[in-house]
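pipeline/complex-builder :: batch 7 item 3
reading input block
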Amino acid sequence: MGKVLIIGAGGVATVAAHKVAQHPEVFDEIMIASRTKAKCDAIVKAIGNPSIQTAKVDADNVEELVELLNGYKPDMVMNLALPYQDLTIMEACLQTGCNYLDTANYEPKDVAHFEYSWQWAYKKRFEEAGLTAILGCGFDPGVSGVYTAYAAKHYFDEIHYLDIVDCNAGNHHKAFATNFNPEINIREITQNGRYYENGQWVETKPMEIHKDLTYPNIGPRDSYLLFHEELESLVKNFPTIKRARFWMTFGQEYLTHLRVIQNIGMARIDEVDYNGVKIVPLQFLKAVLPNPQDLGENYEGETSIGCRIRGVKDGKELTYYVYNNCSHHAAYLETGMQGVSYTTGVPAMIGAMMFLKGIWKKPGVWNVEEFDPDPFMEELNKDGLPWHEVFNGDLEL
Amino acid sequence: MGKVLIIGAGGVATVAAHKVAQHPEVFDEIMIASRTKAKCDAIVKAIGNPSIQTAKVDADNVEELVELLNGYKPDMVMNLALPYQDLTIMEACLQTGCNYLDTANYEPKDVAHFEYSWQWAYKKRFEEAGLTAILGCGFDPGVSGVYTAYAAKHYFDEIHYLDIVDCNAGNHHKAFATNFNPEINIREITQNGRYYENGQWVETKPMEIHKDLTYPNIGPRDSYLLFHEELESLVKNFPTIKRARFWMTFGQEYLTHLRVIQNIGMARIDEVDYNGVKIVPLQFLKAVLPNPQDLGENYEGETSIGCRIRGVKDGKELTYYVYNNCSHHAAYLETGMQGVSYTTGVPAMIGAMMFLKGIWKKPGVWNVEEFDPDPFMEELNKDGLPWHEVFNGDLEL
């Protein structure tokens, strides 16, 4: 049906590449490109399919990207690199007539600030070029938006309250490690919390609001209110929403480590002069911490991510909870990566599949909830992320 | 009486320089040298005595040191640089006929391992050259040895139990900072504990043994058993000692920060490759943490360091506690530095004074307890570190 170029060679890209390779009926040709070609070659070796091509590209560099896209001519670029590179890759797609998908919204390197406005600004250009850009097609953002769209389509006349709940109850047996890029992870968590209520955004201090939430097959876990980027598009696309929040679990040890990392200055994202070399402390810390891609082997337990929704149908109040539980070990056995990479990489593959099948294809820049959720939901069940529904249960929220 | 060269321009060197400058009747000429001459010039400016000379020297480089010593011809070098440089400076002293004093024993850069054997190996060469080397002449080591020698000389026939107790009850109002070079501080604390009992050394895990000890004018503080270098020389020089231990106070927050620093790999002393630059994580952390020299201004509270001794005199059991309390703020007002630098820098000056007065002058390499403690004890009272005695109190140990 079409050829894809995966940019990135981290945990998410590794999972997505495995999954794309499992669907030759959709993906005719595959190329993986990143700053370090050897990492791409290692993924190809792990998959065991030598027909997958690899290339070296600096995703910060539009010219290099354009050259690669003009040479390979993919139907779609799956951007699984860092969110810093969203705009350069979108730009290269526009210049070369290529469709686009990513899993996390753009943020500039020098301020921790996650929002869609930068990428939405490309809407008109993608429209005029007849190209599709699908934003935030991982799990959260991604499946969380598809879940919401599915709930709105099938079960609610109006969604009033939306809580996205993200629990990682896994144990990687390291004193401290982040589950994805530590730089992005720490930037995300140390910023102020924010949620949407009655038409406006309410700001909180970092980790200020938390409560015990009970996760299926896991039990109660202390869950912290964070800002998460899909809130921004979901309240826009579902204007009946009165309140939208995002919750993530953290253990006390994780939070203690995080607090100390900030106290000692290692979460700083400005440059420090070290013997004449300019170094960003958080980037140096990343080089010292365990690589999230190496956590898989001994990772036990599972993740549980879902949407807890309250609204009305035919004038009656209704609650709905849709979620997936993903085993770190099962993810590792299939792809060599842990569950956090797996839950992000699988939906990225499905998004690309939806596009190549012509189901999620419309010129412009879109968030996932703006497409038909049904075929995506069907594919989740087939591709390792089955979902479950609870009707009229206690949402605890 | 003589001229001194101070090597180093940190907090301890700053205090020692102030104190040396207060005694022109002993110190005829003063020079301060360090890797960064501007830091030496800043100390001279703070003291306000333009007759003090300054120079640039790399204390790792014996040739540079020899050239400096041959040019300036000091009677004594006060080594107040890092303990990594003890051996190069001792070597340069031997080559140029210069006497030597330091405040902390040598350790190699690549292993955290504090012991005197490296420096004691120079004993014969100093003897043959007719030169005096005084090792470990800060507070602990330093005053702790003088206290012990004083107790042995005046109050005990036999010392049986020696506990050196070091409390910092100050508050610098920073989330986390070390009171002296963070690299040395963290190396010291993260190594195994060790104490002497019945003729042998007993090893403990880091921070394994701790108890509440009550410090004068402060109250009870959780105190942790560490190895500290003066134990090594004191049990050798006072062979009646059955048990010798060293205790230091740490708050829970400090220990939490330390634990996390280790967990995240920032206490590592091996080199890490960071974008092609070799960087020792602990040294990078030092560059990000507050500079101990900048803590003085808002430092409240005091330190309390002393020796708790049990032994016999005329066949009767006796306990003896001798200690000094030092106010961070008073130290800052006098020298611009906090109490931890002050309590180390003042004894260094007194040691040099003892040598230049001919009281502590004998060819060889010596620890402070091998000299007459009385004139040193007298000088402590005059120079800002008055001491107090408690007889037959409860040592809690």
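note: The two ends of chain B are 44 Å apart (CA to CA).
queue -> next item
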